[in-house]
Write a structure and sequence with these properties.
A five-stranded parallel β-sheet has the order 2-1-3-4-5, with helices on both faces. Strands 6-7-8-9 form a four-stranded antiparallel β-sheet, with helices on one face. 42% of the residues lie in helices and 20% in strands. Helix 1 crosses helix 5, helix 6 packs across helix 8 and helix 7 packs across helix 8. By secondary structure, it is α/β, with parallel strands linked by helices.
């Protein structure tokens, strides 16, 4: 599937390498090197995927991402950063990134991560037989990759939707963070705090009181699950 990819990177050598790999994979590419330019390019012609550097002139990548997420944009975003410590990764995910890659990076890995995000965006989990799932006031349309709460659209990132759709399709079952990383995103390694961040972001969008969730439940030290119908009565 060919996608519109916006590369936001102020290192011209790295940008050129990324452009070559992404184009060779069959995607259309635009490149900007400045935070303000990135914001304008993103708003004027919304991309499918954004490769977003953090350290940029005029506006940081995180500020660009924050503004677009606040505007309801749900493009898939892969942050590219020289900062690989856990707090930096978590901040990026909290701002609404779908993935986080630390420099120095493999351009081939970037292409694989883009394609993984695109696959998840176009192919609902084949194990889920119902086209539409209902959890309390939340409705999840698997085919359209669309969710509403009390009839109002929910602005979910690709990762957030994947997590919600998977848990909703296995209602009442508890999954560990490691299992969710493997079964939802296909990752056999990585920091499980990624799952924690996405659960927290989901709760902020689904729950009346995110600090006292009724839909996305924590089960002791075992993991997470969606509440059963009888628990919502």
């Amino acid at each position: 599937m060919a996608a519109e990819v916006l590369i936001v990177e102020d290192d011209p050598m790295l940008a050129d390498v990324l452009v070559g790999y992404v184009r060779n994979a069959g995607h259309r590419v635009r490149v900007v090197a400045d935070g303000a330019e990135a914001l304008a390019a993103w708003e004027n012609e919304p991309p499918d995927v954004v490769l977003l550097d953090v350290m940029l002139p005029t506006l940081s990548g995180l500020e660009v991402l924050r503004r677009r997420r606040n505007a309801g944009d749900n493009a898939a975003v892969i942050i590219i950063s020289a900062r690989g410590d856990e707090p930096d990764r978590l901040i990026g995910l909290e701002f609404g990134a779908d993935d986080y890659v630390v420099k120095p990076l493999s351009p081939r890995e970037i292409v694989l991560r883009i394609e993984a995000l695109l696959r998840r965006a176009t192919q609902p989990d084949g194990r889920l037989s119902d086209r539409t799932l209902q959890i309390g006031s939340v409705e999840v349309d698997l085919a359209a990759r669309w969710a509403t709460r009390s009839g109002s659209p929910l602005q979910l990132t690709s990762r957030e939707f994947d997590l919600l759709a998977f848990l909703a399709g296995h209602r009442g079952e508890t999954f560990s963070k490691t299992a969710l990383m493997q079964r939802v995103w296909g990752w056999d390694f990585g920091d499980t705090s990624t799952v924690t961040v996405h659960v927290r972001r989901l709760r902020q969008k689904l729950e009346d009181d995110p600090s006292d969730p009724r839909l996305v439940l924590t089960v002791g030290r075992q993991g997470y699950r969606i509440a059963r119908e009888d628990e919502l009565a």
